[in-house]
Amino acid sequence: MVPMVDLKKQFHAIKDDVLDVLTEILEGSRYVLGDRVSEFEKRVAEYHSVGEAIGVASGTDALHLSLDALGIGAGDEVITTPFTFFATVEAILYTGATPVFVDVDPETLNIDVDQIEANINGKTKAVLPVHLFGHPADMERISKIAKRKRLKVIEDCAQSFGAKMNGKKTGCFGDAGCFSFYPSKNLGAYGDGGMITLSNPRAAGLIRELRNHGSRGSYRHRRVGYNSRLDEIQAGILLIKLRYIDEYNEQRRKNAALYHSLLSETVRCPVEKEGAYHVYHQYTIMDRKRDKIQEKLRDEGVSSVVYYPVPLHLQEALRFLGYHRGDFPVAERAAREVLSLPMYPELEEPVIAKIAKIIKRVV
Fold this sequence. Notes:
2 domains, Aspartate Aminotransferase, domain 1, Aspartate Aminotransferase, domain 2, 38% helix, alpha/beta
């Protein structure tokens, strides 16, 4: 099968560096909150031009700890999108707050900014936009609304490491930017990992306590926290990959441009809004014949994935929120029509051409 992402091919390109750093870490025998975690945090903060970057155990924890540190809790409401991975809403619920959904933009599938203000009330405390598939949400407009309404902004950057809007990277617009280093991400570890970017020293200090059982060391605990620490091995691997992230993203963009040139007259291809720098964590097409396309790709030995087949407001686990089918028609249509194709820096042009040929034959 042509895989969705070929992690083995990427590993072989950096294999010597990875084995060297693993040997150094194993010889040094320090595995938690060591020098490489500190160095990786410093490098990510510099990359994003922010004051702080804090490593945590996962992207989900990055969202959860950010919401917690920014004072979001029981009785509060957080506006977000129904078309995203389940972790986005899980993190809100962990704090005791209530997610409030608004529909998505029909072009980018990011949160529809035009619908945000109508859903703000006295309980609203934050907006949580998602930079879906690597395309930045309209953060300039979201930030203006949040400032006017005195709301916190927590960016879900799990799929957008290196993405930009008008030259400014995602993770730099809001009160906190939350990243995932799940292996398949543009910047991926060899296990779970996450990062929070922010420039508020007080919130950063609180997050550093929360990730380590509410302690800053010496077994003195100022609050009840969590066990959410980026480990030294993952930090070492991520430091290597960080050197190549811009190159990886540029190659993804080249692959996306080739897909677009071959498929734009056949199916609906991803858009790139003016001012946006899309990093194509996923290359996601839309078509009413989605299921037939996926079946034929599978028959021809090509992987594809539906991200996401059920929007959050229709998930069984979230029935208690009281939403119904038809509440968010754009998200529901997307769930019926989206299909993500293989996308990774090492993807070769003849393979993209083969995939496009199969899709054209079906449509």
